[in-house]
DNA sequence: TCAAAAGTGTTAGATATACACCCATGC
DNA sequence: GCATGGGTGTATATCTAACACTTTTGA
């Protein structure tokens, strides 16, 4: 892996031996029927044909990291404007058996309703797996996933990002069940309601559920600019 | 930047054009005289000679990312066993003017007493800067530092990592002042004492300060295995 | 009328916050 | 004795956690 690169210190081109290849791998989360799921792809060719892994790909020459991740997600799901968060770089020298490849992990949160509408045209086989039924994955992808889940659990308590996994309009019980599933912890319905409503973060849509065989619940929406305004006033989301 | 690399999908070597170079940059925090400081280095050669930047360097062929960061820190400070935490990868295509270079940021926390003993032999000029007096730095290093500080502020409230910036033996007021400085927020002495002591995280050394012109304070020590045991019992550090 | 979920009320206990006050030591 | 920080006590407001209870709706 001898190659030309630039010495940051001197600004000159020098011959030196360092590792080089970089990829991006995405942990794409979805929430459906009360279960947290991630989207895996089946490797179509090569040594590990048939095994599952995180969707990923290369970064282009003039592309920022976040842009590359957005592009890869668009290619896979047909969706733009996905909530995205870089995890970190994974660079164990042995993580990839055929050479030194460093990968940058991303967490993506998508609304399953959007995915169901737009996706399906992808070439490589993709499938949603419940978080508790993840198979052995290629390379170090199980490790990346472990890290990803820990990060999601931490982040979901610090910032209002869970909404990215729910439909535009949702009920408080749906929101609570999302938290219960992500944090793997039972919660108290009355207390949850009060806590979230007290934040004044949600817009009451004055609409109700339809076609449910029980009392219809109010629908709410999360709006990012409300959160921003509250944050400016010193509010800090905590769960 | 045409070069040979491995297609992850197929396992075959393919010719393709992607970016390649990777560096590590470290934000090294210290705490002295009630001030949070970071260690910057002066660029000795090249275009931006004389300007200050974060210490960093290359990753070796068969070296993990964390190991590379540890090695760089050892080269710069003479210290082993530094508390280290990866931030994330910074990869704006224009961040480095002379070519595509992605850098992986690290936060390092060191005890100034150790540094003062071991350091000083380094070739490149290094200097501690108070966090409120940071000059303009090379490349995107101010951005990396902004991210680093936000991360430190978040982490210091979630995990007992602040101790890595204090001497082995410290008083509760020192600890409180560290928190006040990092979080940029005044705190109440009695309440801080109770809160931290209630956690039963600190070892009371049954020792007192010496040579102080006021009532001598008790000295405490933080021990990681106590924290681990508490964590196993469900304790979670929060500030 | 029953099941299922929506939604309200109440209370005991734990935490946070603010601040008054005494203690020990060197100068 | 006074300045400086060490250290204790206490009252109030707020939040958490547990759970009893009423309401609405479709089947």
Automatic annotation (TrEMBL), chains A, B:
InterPro entries: NUDIX_hydrolase-like_dom_sf, NUDIX_hydrolase_dom, WH-like_DNA-bd_sf, WH_DNA-bd_sf, WHD_NrtR
Domain Nudix hydrolase: 19-152
PROSITE patterns xrefs: NUDIX
Top-rank taxon, per record: Bacteria
SUPFAM superfamilies cross-referenced by the UniProt entry: Nudix, Winged helix' DNA-binding domain
Short name of any one Pfam family annotated for the protein: NUDIX
Protein name: NUDIX domain-containing protein
